[in-house]
Amino acid sequence: MSERSLKPDITTSQNLASAALSYTTSIDRKFKLEEIFLHFSSAVSETVTITLDSATGANYDIVLDKKVLVNTTDYVFRPQGELNLQRGDEIKIQCTNATATATVYATIKTQDILR
After folding, report:
1. What per-residue string of b and e applies to 6-26 under the rule 16 or more CB within 10 Å gives b?
2. Any bridge partners for residue 57, and if so which?
3. Domains (ranges, CATH) in the chain?
């Protein structure tokens, strides 16, 4: 069993009136993805996509979740089972801005894999 240590939250935000959200982490260590929270300053109807950006290359990237939000202020993604990632693997969060004028606040929770 691996030892783990909870890391400080990774946060980002984007005013969707200005541009869509497209954020890729730069964790650069072995880690376990615990969860991702998105909070919107007002209700939105947009599409959120969470992708594993693989260190192995674009051919190995996978969409972990894609959700069409309808009149929603909060979205939570929790991997099914453990999602243990290698150094160089990153998480990409995208949110469209087709109609939203809200600001989206993203919080990513991870744990270090120490062994």
Report:
1. ebeebeeebebeeeebebebe
2. none
3. 4-113 (2.60.120.260)
Report the C-alpha gap between 30 and 86 in whole angstroms.
Answer: 5
User: Taking CA 60 as the corner, what is the angle to CA 74 and CA 90, rounded to the nearest 5 degrees?
Assistant: 45
Q: Is the pTM of this model over 0.85?
A: yes
Cα–Cα distance measured from residue 46 to residue 96, given in angstroms and rounded to the nearest whole number? 6
Quick: pLDDT tens for 41-79: 999 999 999 999 999 999 999 999 999 999 999 999 999
Interatomic CA distance for residues 36 and 74, integer angstroms: 11
